[in-house]
Each structure stands twice: as structure tokens, then as C-alpha cells.
Amino acid sequence: HRILCVVGARPNFMKMAPIMAAFDALPGIEAKLVHTGQHYDVAMNHQYFQALGIPDPDINLEVGSGSHAQQTAEVMRRFEPALDDVAPSAVLVVGDVNSTIACALVAAKKGVPVIHVEAGLRSFDRAMPEEINRVLTDQLSDLLFTTEESGRANLLNEGIADGRIHFVGNVMIDTLRLNLPRAVPAAQIAADAGRPGFADKGFAVLTLHRPSNVDDAAILKRLLETAGKISERMPVIFPVHPRTRATIERFGLSHLLDRASILLLPPMGYLEMLGLMKDATVVLTDSGGIQEETTALGTPCITLRHNTERPITVDEGTNTIAGNDPAAILAAFEGVSGGGGKAGRVPHFWDGRAAERIAAIVAAWLQNR
Ligand code: UD1
């Protein structure tokens, strides 16, 4: 049996690495990898592939950026002939990016079964493009793997049959546990950036890329001003996503970051980001994955959104939802900076073996078809 696995954007890569490895270890399953090219910068791509030991993609679609419609359509158009060529028993997609929904839709219409890893997460906020991708991908999927138990209830509510849903844990945490010994220490990252000592006495990490935060000038300004206030209490390391770099320049906000206690970095490789999260006193982020990674690491996280599709990171983990209001963010920061951060525990099945469970279930499912 051939399985065609799809990656497109940075948060897909670390999820796919353990899945490819688990399929590789099973006789009778051949996993092929297609990269849609949604992310194309070296910083967003090759650093990840190399660090994670992901095999080079068998197929590159090179779609690049565009509006949602353009990007999704272009992935669909280019994925169809690739799917015909490979003629797999199933297509496996991960996460919630535009490449996920695009390839799931093409496969489903061709009668090729769809497997969705990280199914059932819901923010209940349809203003988020990823929420639309999540809901629709799950509707198209034959086999749905969840990272936390909230996923099953969400899927059942949307009419998805219980027998298709499998709670297996979190493949991103498989990757995290495997690579933790190789994480690049924050002190080294600061030194390499020409600021030795910057990270030695506690620091905050900031990441921002969600359109609702960075594409609105007033909100972005407010968030960067808040980062400035935090930097008066603790050094801030800010790896800047390409989307965010572009809007900071477009809105003329660069001066807000021009402070000795803010260290701007390009997008980090996986092992660098892992080291920053591990060594940080606190992480402020609007990423989905980072909420989970900080929970797995036990590092306090302040989420700069009004909701989360990953409620277990709040219920059991180290995550606090603060939104984009400066007073709420600063209050949450005061809560953790004095050492009073949420202790949290690591959720069930975030144990490094999620991909093995997925491969075993997929193999049995293929046998019975
Ligand atoms: C995408 C995902 C988001 C994920 C994020 C992680 C969707 C809808 N969004 O958002 O869920 O959290 O990736 O990074 O799929 N750009 C570059 N180089 C690149 C890629 C993008 O410069 O390699 C710039 C381009 O100007 C582009 C912008 O970033 O227009 C946005 O890229 P895009 O892939 O559309 O969405 P992300 O914001 O990265």
C-alpha cells in the first residue's frame, strides 16, 4: 500500500517527520511525500527538513503565496496530477493550513480515502482561516486522529461517525521529545546573533503571525507596544515571521522594536525554536503549535488570542489565554514573571509514541478494506 503524505507550511513539517518514520518501520506500507510549496523560504523549509531528518519530498508542487483562493486553488490544480501518478491507497494530511484542505478536497472527490492527523480541534471562531480548513477537512476524512479528547466531542457534534475517530496523542510532541537533547541553547542563539549574555538572566520569547494580530495596524501597534513594556522588565527575543516582518514595515512600526532589550531574529529553525522555548521564562505567542510545545516543556505560555482550539493546554498545561488587550497581557505576564507561572502537567498520550499508534491503526484499517 502506498500512502501519499502532504506537507505545505512550516507547522506541518515537524508533524510529518515521525509519521514518515513510523510508516517506514512497517512492512507493506510505502509512504511518499509531497510538498505543496506553500512555504518556500529557506528559513521556513530547509532548516526544518534537515534538522528533522525528513526525507526530501518525492514531489514538489511549488505553489508559493497568494490569496486564500489562489493558494488553495493552485494546490488543488497541481496536486491532482500528482495524485493520479502515485495512485495511493490513501492521502494523509496534517493540521489546518491551506494545503491541508486543498489536498483533502482533491482526494475526496477522486474517491481516495483521506486520513487527517490532528483532527477535531475547534476554536469556534470562523474568522480564523484555519478553523474553516479544520471543519471541512474533518468532513472529508475517512480516518481521524485526535491529539486531545475534546476533539472527539467536537467531531461527534458535527455528525462524524465515532468509529472513524481515534485518540492517539500528539505527533508534534513525538518530534519534540526525540529532538530535545539536540535543542540549541538560547545562550548560544543570543551569542550567534551578536548579543552574548542577552538570555542569561531569564527572558521572554515572542512570536506573532496570525492575520488577526499582524494584518491590522492598530492591533499590531498595541502588541508591539506591549512587547516594549515587557522588555522593560525582562529581555525579549522575537523571531519575526515573514508575514509579520512585511506588515511591521508597511505600517511603519519598526521603531517600536528599536530597544536594546528586544532581540529581533529571523524565523528560527526547529532546534533553535525548541531551545528558545525550553530556556524561556515565558513565551508569548499567537501560534497554535507553540501552545502545545510549551505545555510539553512545562514553560509558561501566554496566548495572544481570544480563544484556543487546544483547550487541554489551558485545562492541564501551562497556557493562559490573554487576547490582544495590553492590560490583560501585562497582567498575565506579571503572573508568571514572578515565578508564579502555571505548573501544568503533560496531557495523556503526549508521550512520543503517537505516530506509532497512527501507523498501526492505518495498517489495520488498510487490511480490512
Ligand atoms: C500559514 C498557515 C498558518 C500557519 C502558518 C505558520 C494557512 C491559512 N495559514 O500562515 O495556519 O500557522 O503558515 O507559518 O495555511 N511568506 C514568505 N515566505 C514563505 C512563506 C510565506 O515570505 O516561505 C510570506 C508571504 O509574503 C506570504 C505571507 O508570508 O504572503 C503569508 O504566507 P502564507 O503561507 O499565506 O500564510 P502564513 O501566514 O505563513
Automatic annotation (TrEMBL):
<dbReference type="InterPro" id="IPR003331">
    <property type="entry name" value="UDP_GlcNAc_Epimerase_2_dom"/>
</dbReference>
<protein>
    <submittedName>
        <fullName>UDP-N-acetylglucosamine 2-epimerase (Non-hydrolyzing)</fullName>
        <ecNumber>5.1.3.14</ecNumber>
    </submittedName>
</protein>
<dbReference type="Pfam" id="PF02350">
    <property type="entry name" value="Epimerase_2"/>
</dbReference>
<comment type="similarity">
    <text>Belongs to the UDP-N-acetylglucosamine 2-epimerase family.</text>
</comment>
<dbReference type="GO" id="GO:0008761">
    <property type="term" value="F:UDP-N-acetylglucosamine 2-epimerase activity"/>
</dbReference>
<keyword id="KW-0413">Isomerase</keyword>
<dbReference type="InterPro" id="IPR029767">
    <property type="entry name" value="WecB-like"/>
</dbReference>
<feature type="domain" description="UDP-N-acetylglucosamine 2-epimerase">
    <location>
        <begin position="24"/>
        <end position="362"/>
    </location>
</feature>
